[in-house]
Each structure stands twice: as C-alpha cells, then as structure tokens.
Write a structure and sequence with these properties.
This protein is of the alpha/beta class. It has two domains: about 15-110 and about 165-235, Glucose-6-phosphate isomerase like protein, domain 1 (Rossmann fold, 3-Layer(aba) Sandwich), CATH 3.40.50.10490; about 110-160. It is about 45% helix and about 15% strand. It is built from eight helices and eight strands. It has helices spanning about 15-20, 50-70, 85-95, 110-130, 135, 140-155, 180-190, 215-235, and strands spanning about 25, 40-45, 45-50, 75-80, 100, 170-175, 190-195, 205-210. A hairpin with a 2-residue loop joins β2 (about 40-45) and β3. α2 (about 50-70) runs parallel beside α8 (about 215-235), α3 (about 85-95) packs parallel to α8 and α4 (about 110-130) packs across α6. The longest helix is centred in the N-terminal third of the chain and has 20 residues, at about 50-70. It is elongated and about 70 Å long. The two termini are about 15 Å apart.
Length: about 240
Amino acid sequence: MNNMTIPEMAGVGVDRLFATGAHFAQLKSRRHPSMKPYIIGTKSRVEIFDLKKTDEQLAAAKAAIAALARDGKTVLFVGGKREVSDILRDTARRIGAPYVAGRWLGGTISNFTEIKKRIDRLADLSQKRDAGELTKLYTKLERIYIDREIERLSERLEGIRDLSKRPDAMVIVDTRHEAHATKEAREAGIPVIGVMSSDCNIKDAAYPIAGNDSSRETVTLILNELAAAYEQGRKG
C-alpha cells in the first residue's frame, strides 16, 4: 500500500459524525493507552472522541480504499459482532466485496491454503448437487450427509466463497472484538482500515478511524463512505 498514489478525499464532517453518536468512546478505565491523543473530554464518565481527528482519519481511509479499488485489489470486510454484522454484510455485498459477518474462521489468512480447499470443496459439492450428479453417485443416506456438509460449509464460508487468494487489505469493525482477524492480518503484513473505539489499540490499523464502533448509525455512515469511495476508485 505504501507504493500507491493516494487520492485526496474529504471526510463527512464533524456534524454528521456527531449526529450518529460517533463521539462516544468507552469509560476511561477501559481506554487503551494508544487512544489518549484522540480523546477530547469526558461526559458522565464516558470519554469523548475528538471528531475532527476522526473525520481526518475517515478521509485518509477513504482515499486508501479508493486507491486499492482502482488498482484491482481485494478488500475483505470483517465485523461479526451482533450490533453491526448485518450492516457490514449488506455493505460488502453491495460492492461485491468478500466479508466475514460472523465468527472468524481461524486460519482464513494464516492458513489460506487450507481454507481454499474448503472453498473448493463447497463449490464442487454444490455444483454436483445442482447438476443432479449426486443422485447418480450416492445413496439417499449419503446425500443427506453431503447436504449437511454443504450447509455447514456454506454457513462458515458465507462471505468468502469467491475469495481466490489472501486479501490485499481488510476493513475491520472493532479490532479488539475481531482480535484473531486483526492478529492474522498483522502477522501477514496485510494493512487494516479499522473502525475502532477507545478500547482498541490504534496501532492495529494502518488506517484507524476512532469512533463509536458499537453504534449502528456510526458504523453505517462510515461503511457507506468507505463503500462509496471503493466504488469511485473502481471506476478509475
């Protein structure tokens, strides 16, 4: 990513972020030390983000994801916690990006060769079932077990069925909650765009966006902005 030409992009403005509750961080006792520079004050024991800095971070993240899309890079969206998983899934599907909107499957990055075998297995079984080939090759009982395997693989690989290689970058909502995905990305040298509350380590993302990562409104706004930038970049 360091070799890319990053286009200039604007954020969304402090007012729009504020309207979604993006300014609410965590209790001071839960704050990761790396987040201190992004806190501007406290209200009712809850710390408050400096949304001017958040907006600048969002602008930088939008520019980065636009450059990735322009260069044909693959961006994997990750966010499985209950509050935002459906938002992340819908956003990724809208732009045709791979996603993990449930439990992170260990090895998705660190052992992608094995994950790819499962993806290929699912594709093979699904194709044979749809073509009616399983009826000719297996008994009724065997087909029941195969259907169960297809269902299990489909659930686990839902958003990465078309992933043919390790992603070039990742968008992660709440890097602390998605600690396993974040760790695999870091160890593989894959840059992360992170939507991160104050309990996250800012260093876990190449492009951090400090904000309320549990607010559906905040996450929707940020992901929509990133998706729009991605689509703009894809158009060249």
